[in-house]
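Design request, tokens follow.
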């Protein structure tokens, strides 16, 4: 400033009620006719909403990186709750996951929620068709059932809830923000809450797909292990990678002696040409006709 250049900065401060706000401050020197600095003029612009959106977007990007990196669902949901709480003063965030039977809500994350309240609500039975989104005072909330007094004892007076629904319409869970005062809360807090629920939807849908794939892989493994016919896998250069138990049952030979060897060694010499032809067709993604091959 003393050199005659204006000063620009973003200042973080607190209002009288304790709420944080961000101000873009510019202080400019004023000069007299001789060029001497005589006064300073200060102007400020409230950029709290802009800053909130920037921080929210940055937090969302980090959560999406966690989801793409395959982080465990509880860890991702806890990070989402922390993100919402950092953007909404006096709000406790939680995400509840509907079990596979579609009857009970389990705590997915609620890092700041009082432990006794977590325990009281974990596993509550619900009617999915009756679950709704919106704001309710603690004394009116269906979600809380017999735990209204417990919530009030912790200074929680209202909840904002939103259904977490998959693309196919399946209810996955519930996002719940616990408010320290009655009413709907601030509009900017609603924006952060909705953004957090959208992130939770992405995370829970991905987890749902991963679990389905794991179950599919397990079902396939059981099918192969219990099959009465020989099931095997080959590498692209014709090396035996796996043989199911039926191989030993039918041939009387240990599978371990053949793994890692060319499949051609197992084939009867007279059937080897058609076995190789069938293998080459498979490598080009052509569907080869069923063939009988002796071993």
């Amino acid at each position: 400033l003393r050199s005659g250049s204006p000063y620009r900065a973003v200042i973080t401060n607190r209002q009288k009620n304790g709420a944080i706000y961000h101000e873009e401050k510019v202080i400019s020197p004023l000069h007299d006719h001789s060029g001497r600095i005589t006064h300073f003029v200060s102007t400020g612009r409230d950029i709290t909403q802009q800053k909130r959106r920037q921080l929210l977007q940055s937090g969302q990007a980090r959560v999406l990186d966690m989801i793409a990196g395959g982080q465990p669902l509880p860890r991702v949901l806890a990070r989402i709750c922390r993100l919402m709480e950092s953007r909404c003063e006096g709000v406790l965030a939680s995400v509840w996951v509907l079990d596979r039977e579609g009857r009970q809500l389990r705590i997915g994350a609620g890092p700041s929620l009082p432990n006794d309240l977590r325990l009281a609500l974990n596993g509550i039975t619900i009617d999915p068709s009756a679950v709704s989104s919106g704001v309710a005072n603690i004394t009116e909330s269906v979600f809380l059932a017999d735990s209204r007094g417990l919530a009030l004892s912790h200074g929680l007076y209202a909840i904002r809830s939103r259904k977490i629904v998959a693309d196919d319409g399946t209810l996955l869970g519930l996002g719940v923000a616990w408010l320290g005062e009655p009413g709907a809360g601030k509009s900017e807090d609603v924006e952060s809450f909705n953004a957090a629920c959208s992130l939770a939807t992405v995370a829970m849908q991905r987890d749902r797909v991963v679990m389905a794939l794991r179950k599919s892989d397990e079902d396939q493994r059981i099918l192969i292990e219990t099959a009465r016919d020989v099931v095997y896998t080959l590498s692209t250069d014709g090396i035996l990678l796996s043989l199911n138990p039926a191989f030993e049952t039918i041939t009387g030979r240990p599978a371990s002696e053949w793994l890692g060897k060319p499949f051609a060694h197992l084939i009867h010499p007279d059937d080897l040409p058609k076995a190789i032809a069938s293998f080459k067709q498979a490598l080009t993604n052509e569907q080869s006709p069923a063939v009988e091959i002796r071993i």
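Comment from the thread starter after seeing the answer: thanks! The longest helix spans residues 187-226.
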